[in-house]
Amino acid sequence: MKSHARVVVIGGGVVGCSILYHLTKFGWTDVVLLERSELTSGSTWHAAGGMHTINGDPNVAKLQKYTVELYKEIETYSGQDIGLHMTSGLMLAATNERFDWFKSLLAKGKYAGGEARLVSVEEAHAMMPLLDPSQFVGAVFDPHEGHLDPYGTTHAYAKSAKKNGAEIYLHTKVEDLVQLEDGTWRVITDKGEIRAEHVVNAAGLWAREVGRMVGLELPVLAMEHMYLITEDMPEVIDFNRTSGRELMHCVDFDGEIYIRQERNGMLMGTYEKDCRPWSPIETPWSFGHELLVEDLDRISGELEVGFRHFPAFNKAGIKTIINGPFTFSPDGNPLVGPVRGMTNFWSACAVMAGFSQGGGVGLALAQWIIEGDPGFDVFAMDVCRYGDYATLGFTNARVRENYSRRFSIRYPNEELPAARPLLTTPIYDRLKEKGAVFGASSGLETPLWFAPDGVEDRFSWRRSTDFDHVGREARAVRNGVGLMESSGFAKYTVSGEGAADWLDHMLAGRIPSEGRMSLTPMLNEAGKLIGDFTLANLGSGEGHGEFLLIGSGVAEDYHMRWFESHLPQDGSVELAALNLGMVGLAIAGPRSRDVLQALTHLDMSNAAFPFMAIREMDLGMAPAIVGRVSYTGDLGYEIWMKPEYQRYLFEALMEAGKPHGISLFGLRALNALRLEKGFGSWSREYRPLYGPQEAALGRFVSLNKPADFIGKQAANAEKASGGAMRLVTFIVEAQDADVIGDEPIFRDGEACGWVTSGGYAHASACSVAMGYVPAAKATHADGWQIEVLGHMLPARLQAVPLFDPDATRMRG
Predict the structure, then answer these.
(1) For 626-648, what is the HEC assignment?
(2) Is the residue at 202 inside a domain?
(3) Where in the numbering of this chain does the FAD dependent oxidoreductase central domain appear (predicted)?
(4) In whole numbers, what is the pLDDT of the chain averaged over residues?
(5) How confident is the model at residue 543 (pLDDT cuts 50, 70, 90)?
(6) Distances (CA, A) of 512 to 509, 523, 636
(7) What is the residue range of 54's domain?
(8) How many domains does one find in the chain?
């Protein structure tokens, strides 16, 4: 065994071998894979081997498309037969609600060149004669589906990597990982030690244990998963003989099963409601090529539906039952990328759909290691999307829920109950008393809207029971004053003698003067957006840093990883994420100044406290930081305080607001209000896919400032070219359903753009969509269409904000 390597990959499943191959493909040949047993030990060897390209997240769908297209390449290059069967596939809908979901899902692929299409029940039956057409209402046909041999595929990756110069050591168990002062790693095994620059945790079932070697508790849990294989079926043999092809892969979402041909019989698997975690605390190192005890009774309900939907199974004998463990994250997506707070320690685990996503994960991680960036937007799979709240108990509850709902519809207004409530603020109970309907974001309970007694969310693809009440909240802000909790934003303090210079380098915008705020994007080296912030210069007051940075709550760990990796080593900058050590309230609307003035002797007039001003002040008896800014686009204020003061300030603001008809509002009303101003949001309008000119944030990039900020050269180039795409706002002739994101935008019959977010702008009484279209077409007002639930809806480009286009109210 060699003593040094540039990269050590731990784990010989399909993901680990894919990473190894991609590293060598891009020229890094001094790489090693360590496997405690044989390749495919763990989950890979007993996988059903199904693959598909369709995914609800278009960015993940691109990775799946890359994975499927890669298979012929590695088969040819390695000389290893991978048992590739490109059978095509059907996704079946037994209800109209499911069929609506299919329409939405299918639309997302249109601007990416997707070839899947809706088919009738009759067409589906002709393609798959085993199904009972009376049980379904429609289907989606996807030509890019099939299955393969997990063993052969994994070995094809491994042989390709070895052909390029990689080394693989089997029966070599990693026993410890120790990082040295120079950042390199001691990878200690039972066969000796390797010194490595990078370590990749692709350990699958043992990823949690490998993480614990470096003090990391990854949010990953293995679940028992069962499928059965039938004896030979005459119906299958007859179809093969008469058609000259295999039966296709099918996913019956409402039956919660999947099926495909296996030799002359069929394979049927299910994600059952009565699910079972496997080894939830520790994974035994002795486990390998074993299977778990079969338990058909546990999946009897799903099998009963499956046999009804596919009657031929009733006459088939069962030849084999497979029950093996697979790893999942709380949301079912992989955990990929550099681990925050560690140098060159990488995660590539919880890749449940390894044969749909393994190639894409290998591509992303190899580019990330070599280039410092994955090359595309992988936020949905980023290991940093989870923070410290994702404990063992949280993970167990969420994974069980996700597994049992894997084939269930997740409506856009649906909030799931597992592992809740976890994080709450001091006014949680007061908001609940007032009818708050909460959503959980990064573990924190946040009010979405306020329901009168007897009214509950009814989950739907269309406008639901919250519609009128969200409208009331939005209009209350525009006509008077509203109050919302804003604790879900991320808050950071940056202090020290080097703070200003460091921020000037990290952020593309200008550094505000003392007592002022500025809006600033943050870019990567390629000039793409990786953050948008409000930066406040607080001076040098006691008890806080010199600068307060406010950003997206869901991206806090993602941003902290970036910040920490760029901190100077001389200690001149101190950085802290405040989490719930600082909480917030926000008031907005034309009467908001009157409410605030009632709680302070200070002059809050426009002349004394103008737009984008910030200061420390007492409100009533409580110390707070007050900034004059509002995401509603109205006159408004953000108020930040220590948690022990929030309850008092909430009551004080509500009392002061009584003469002005103050009303509570939640995130759904906030969404309606920000759409009227064309304000974008992180992870929707602002992502590493876009440059600041494309995202209409160019005015906040200070290209002329002396500081050489990250991405400056690329930002200059983008300004010169104008960028390929442009973020725009549309007014949509919607009926009873509004856009939710990722719908295709058409012009002249061509899908040329995509929706990033939208909804109904209640105060302006119209349906709004924000999205990206080619820059050359962004000046045309008419001739647009947006597809919503299978309907082509006329849309008109809105060149100026619907509300306060001159910003007179916001600044007045």
Answers:
(1) EECCCCCCCCEEEEEECHHHHHH
(2) yes
(3) 371-424
(4) 96
(5) very low
(6) 9, 18, 19
(7) 4-82+148-219+331-381
(8) 2
